[in-house]
Amino acid sequence: MTFTATILTLFPEMFPGSLGISLAGKALNDGLWSLDARDIRASATDKHRTVDDHPAGGGAGMVLKPDILAAAIDAAPHVGPRLLMSPRGIPLTQAFVRELAAGPGCLIVCGRFEGIDERVIENRKLIEVSLGDFVLSGGEPAALALLDAVVRLLPGVMGKAESGVEESFEDGLLEHPHYTKPRIWEGLEIPQILLSGDHKAIAKWKHEQREALTKQRRPDLWRKYLPDKN
Ligand code: SAH
Question: Which parts of the chain have pLDDT scores under 50?
């Protein structure tokens, strides 16, 4: 099964973008996933190819028209859930990324301007997904980031060694620090334990580091992690 991503955007030239290089790009070339970036404007019907209009009730900016966007969604072959990149959405998590990667694909709507008409979200059952508590000028960079996270989890994309379960968030903890040669750099040494060859002690050290970092930097994750542990 090939994971199929369908993107609806006013700027299809932003794709595959960063997903066309390195790991994701190679996987795209190898047919491990596929990408179909479609221009919402192709569904516009008037001679000016209008896709937006003024917000009802007044206010700044423009809103993507429901009829045009819905027509674009209906015209696009797609599988899996329909997502809308949106600062109001559920914050993207590794768990959600894993769920998507286990499925057949997804449709991603990229907003622009002030956003899209609420009725499309309702009638086309769009799941709003946020990259974080900040405002981008469009959904495209958010869609690229989401797909980057999904694609690296697809079977065959990463080597076994790289896809370790020790990564940040996989068990609710942040990752431990990494080191590599030289052994001493600018007076700083690689922690002795990592050079000891004692795999059990190393695993214990890594776990302790992960717990300490999470407790210190992310009290929100730490609170969620604690009940599982005991
Ligand atoms: N007026 C909106 C912001 C619109 S930004 C508000 O105040 O909530 C334009 C588009 O960028 C959005 O429609 C969305 O698709 C995208 N976008 C902006 N910030 C985002 C974020 N944090 N996560 C995901 N998408 C985002």
Answer: none
Minimal-distance CA residue to ligand 1 atom 26:
86
Superfamily of domain covering 3-151: SPOUT methyltransferase, trefoil knot domain (3.40.1280.10)
| Chain region(s) in the chain for CATH 1.10.1270.20 | 166-229
Range list for CATH 3.40.1280.10 in the chain: 3-151
3-state class of 162 per DSSP?
A: coil
pLDDT at residue 2 in the model: 95
Instruction: State the distance from the centre of ligand 1 to the C-alpha of 89, rounded, in angstroms.
Output: 9
Per-residue model confidence (pLDDT) at position 223: 97
Given this model, what pLDDT does residue 182 score? 98
Is the model's pTM score more than 0.85? yes
Alpha-carbon distance of 16 to 84, in angstroms, equals 18
Query: Where does residue 160 rank: exposed (0-12), middle (13-18), buried (19+ CB within 10 A)?
Result: exposed
> Which protein residues are within 6 Å of ligand 1, measured from CB?
85-88, 110-112, 114-115, 130-132, 134-136, 138-139, 142
pLDDT (0 to 100) of residue 164: 56
What pLDDT sits at residue 197? Answer: 98
**Separation of alpha carbons 71 and 53, rounded Å:** 16
CATH class for domain 166-229?
mainly alpha
Q: CA–CA separation, 186 vs 16, rounded Å?
A: 40
pLDDT of residue 1: 78
Taking the C-alpha atoms of residue 164 and residue 153, their distance in angstroms, rounded to an integer, is 11
